[in-house]
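Chain A, query sequence.
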Amino acid sequence: MQPKRRSSLSSAATQKLQKVLAGTGLGSRRSMEELIKSGKVRVNGALAQLGDRVGPGDVIRVGRRTIEVEEEFRLPRILLYHKPEGEIVTRNDPQGRPSVFLQLPRLRAAQWLAVGRLDYNTSGLLIFTTSGELVNRLTHPRFEVEREYAVRIMGKLSEQEIGRLTRGIELADGDARFESLLDEGGEGSNHWYRAVLTEGRNRIVRRMFEQAGYTVSRLIRIRFGIVGLPPQLRRGQCVELREGAVKQILAWVDMLPTTPPPVSQGRPATHGRPRRAKAAR
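Chain A, predicted structure.
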């Protein structure tokens, strides 16, 4: 059964149900789709179905939680965290290892969603937000958002090996390549590189270097899209972006409405010139 609609609502004034739910911080768009399929969502009292659209005035119920769709556009919250090595990006770990979520400020009406992940032994920039839609825009492969890493390896790549890694290298789960791979120098047996790629498969940077015959001894994510790791942000610390910086990110991923409400301008904590797909270097 489709939810009841007021005749004054046009399709332009409505949004997909899973998109609205993701925007409230309940989870990713994909997890919201599964929630709808499982019959746990109602709109205006009717059991929701995948493909339903909602607009201002509609009432959504998810379990005991009630969500009213409003006219007003609300900015999501965005948090930057400098992850140290030795923490996992999951809420529950059978091994009892420290979780990054324990370091974040608590929320009442939503939850922090991680934009991508970093493995246990990788440090650097992690982005958290209350918007599942923003997570989707930043992580879905079709948007090709750049991730930039500082990589330290044992040994030094030859020009031929750099060419191979930027042209494409075969991994067990498919081909992968770096958009760019720059020599940053080093001393002794350690050498640093700055690597950029547009996907986030599990341990992909480490696996690419391993396939080329090198061991990564240090891996730090320094940029995600147009968001750079603030140099003053120490390991284990987080900072919430001001409204001006949030608005800049939303504009970059085409998530701002045509006529957004005014927001106070703060000092942006992002780097690079906004573009629709890849970030400017």
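Helices lie at 17-23, 29-37, 132-139, 159-167, 204-211, 243-252. The domain at 11-68 is CATH 3.10.290.10 (Structural Genomics Hypothetical 15.5 Kd Protein In mrcA-pckA Intergenic Region; Chain A).
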